[in-house]
Amino acid sequence: MSSTEQGTSSASPAEPTTAPESVAAPEAPESFYYVHGKDKVVIKVSAGALQHSALIDGMISNLGYTEEQAKANPFPFDNIDGDILKIAVERYKPPKQVNVPEWDQKFLEGIDKDGKLFDLVIAVNYLEIKELLTYCCKQVAMMIKGKSPEEIREIYMIPTDEEDAAAEKEAKERAKKEAAGETAAAGEGEAPSTSDAK
User: Where are the coiled-coil regions (predicted)?
Assistant: First the structure.
C-alpha cells in the first residue's frame, strides 16, 4: 500500500540540518561478578571494581573463576556484614564518563553565555529529557572546575557567611518590628477603661 493510499502525504518534512544525529560510541561489554556477605544477599559487582581488592582479584585469577561461575556460586564472605560489603565494593564502582558531543557542547556554551543554563536545567528536568539534562549537568560541573570557593560563590550567587548572618539579623529585626506593630495596633483597638466609679 502506498503512502498516498494510507492517507498520508508522500512528501516528508524536511530534516533539520543544524543538529547532527547523536550517536553514542559502542561500549565494551563489562563483566560482572557476584559476592555475598553474612546475610547471603547477592551483590553484583563489576570486574573493574573487584580489581581494587587484592583478595578477590587473586581469587578470580588463581581459580580461573568466570562470570558464569560467579553468578552460579557467588564469592562468599561470611565474616563480613552484607551492608558493609556492599559499601566496600561499591566504593570502587567506576563513575560513568559523560562525553558531550561537540554540537551539544557549543550549544550549551551559547546558552551559558546568555545566562539561561540553570533555567534550561530546570526545564529539561521537568520535561524528563534525560540526555540533555546529563549534558547540562556536565556543563555546570565544567563551569566550576578549577575555580576557587569565592569564584564558585560568584557563579552560583551563594552568599558568604557574613552575608548570611546579616540577612538573618535583618530578618529578625523586621520580625520584631512587625510583632511590635501588631501589638501596638491591638492595644489601640481596646476600649478605654472606665474606673471612675465612686
Answer: none
Phi-psi region of 179 (alpha: psi -120 to 50; beta: other; left: phi over 0): alpha
Cell 543538529 belongs to 19
Q: Are 81 and 72 in contact (CB under 8 A)?
A: no
pTM above 0.85, yes or no: no
137 Cβ contact partners less than 8 Å away, ≥ 6 residues apart: 121
